[in-house]
Amino acid sequence: MPLPNLPGLIILDSTGKPIIQTTFRTSAPAFPLLHIGAFNDAVARSVSTGEEVENVLYVPGSLSAGAAGSALCWVQRGDLRFLCPVSDDVDPLFVFTFLNTFLTILREYIGDISASRVRENFDLVYQLLEEMLDSGHPLTTEPNALRDIVLPPSLLNKLLSVTGASGLPGSTSAMPFASPIPWRRHGVRYNNNEVYFDIVEELEAAVGRNGVVLSGEVWGQVRCQCRLSGTPDLLLTFSQPRLLSDPSFHPCVRYQKWTRDRSLSFVPPDGSFTLLTYMVPPPPLAPHQVPLQLRPHIVIGSGTGSFEIGLISRAGRVLEEVKVVWSLGDEATGVQASMSSTSGPVSEKDRGSWGFDPLTRSLEWTIPTLPASASLTLKGTFSSSDAHPRTSPAIQITYTMPSNTISGLKVDSLKLVGSDTYKPFKGVRGSGRAKIEWRW
């Protein structure tokens, strides 16, 4: 089955002017201009109406740009908008996957993605576009293979370009695609061989007013930073591999090995990459997976309201970056509140700070570090210009777990198979982030 066709990609600055675009070889000359104009019109309408611009826009056709209509997929990074019009029946997920891959590689090459950085590295960005998108089809999207073709910027290359000399290939291969493995460069050498794995999980849950978890999903990624010489063959096993559902693997993973015994056998790319993404199946969440308990007591009156929000940690560990946000309605004008602790003396830092955001009309309570088993209370009143304040029926809570995963997934072992040349240093850590909607 042939891959869908992506006619090209357009990069716009914050004013809607194009900075760079690929050559639309299979489309009429007016095709990219039609989509730039349609996108800028949508942005102008969103400014006047206050509505967000959809990430997939329908663009009517025209005689100069083709009779049929088309879809325009776009994403924003910093002050730049990346537009990818598709005229055929193309799945938008395919387009967004390519855009995210391009942005990841672009960040590796130029650092922060901004209009100034793209203009400074115009030739480099154009080379990446031409190599990654060939006549409307994604071609070379592996960072290790691209480094053999498009040299990453370096201080030496910049100095040589100023003096008129040609750049040096540095650590790249003598010939592009010299490696038989598409995702790994040929002849990689390190003085210190090391590999690090990060298991990062995110929880999204909704909790009812009685404290029962109504719904919840855990999504995870296994990220890797590899600095190993030669062509290493790794075998990674998990302590509870049956936790993983709907896994998506990097192309380096041998899938048959996974289906046979739930272990990961792979030759890793050089550098940073995502080895695996997964979901934890959705049976009822265990109590330790939602390690916070909220006890809100809210009374709404005429043009005002009172609240007492109790926050109790049920975790056996410290939680960080805890944030409680409650929208008080569009007509809210101010908040008066005080914080206290019911679990013994707590420092002012551990109690955090609260504030009223006049833009979002929200009460925000931020706690940088929440000790294990801590119990805090935020009590106060708010005022509103509306006689019947319409506050949000749910309170949003976010937090991070710096050294533990939410599902309890751990790496059981990591082995370098079939080589005694060196013994690499291995590091594994887990972390979790959560976003909980607590209804009152």
Describe this structure in words.
This protein is of the alpha+beta class and 440 residues long. It folds into 3 domains: 10-141, Beta-Lactamase; 194-283 and 407-434, Mu homology domain, subdomain B (Immunoglobulin-like); 287-401, Sandwich (Immunoglobulin-like). Helices cover 19% and strands 40% of the residues. The protein has helices at 31-49, 92-110, 115-120, 122-132, 143-149, 155-163, 255-261, 348-351; strands at 10-12, 18-21, 56-59, 70-77, 80-86, 133-134, 137-138, 194-207, 213-227, 234-238, 245-249, 263-266, 271-280, 292-300, 304-313, 319-327, 332-341, 353-357, 362-370, 375-384, 394-401, 411-416, 425-439. A hairpin with a 2-residue loop joins strand 6 (133-134) and strand 7 (137-138). Residues 192-440 form the MHD domain.
Mean pLDDT: 86
Distance between the termini: 51 Å
- Low-pLDDT residue spans: 165-174
**Cα radius of gyration in angstroms:** 26 Å
Topology record:
Elements: E1 10-12, E2 18-21, H1 31-49, E3 56-59, E4 70-77, E5 80-86, H2 92-110, H3 115-120, H4 122-132, E6 133-134, E7 137-138, H5 143-149, H6 155-163, E8 194-207, E9 213-227, E10 234-238, E11 245-249, H7 255-261, E12 263-266, E13 271-280, E14 292-300, E15 304-313, E16 319-327, E17 332-341, H8 348-351, E18 353-357, E19 362-370, E20 375-384, E21 394-401, E22 411-416, E23 425-439
Question: How do you describe this structure in short?
Answer:
The longest helix has 19 residues, at 31-49. By secondary structure, this protein is an alpha+beta fold.
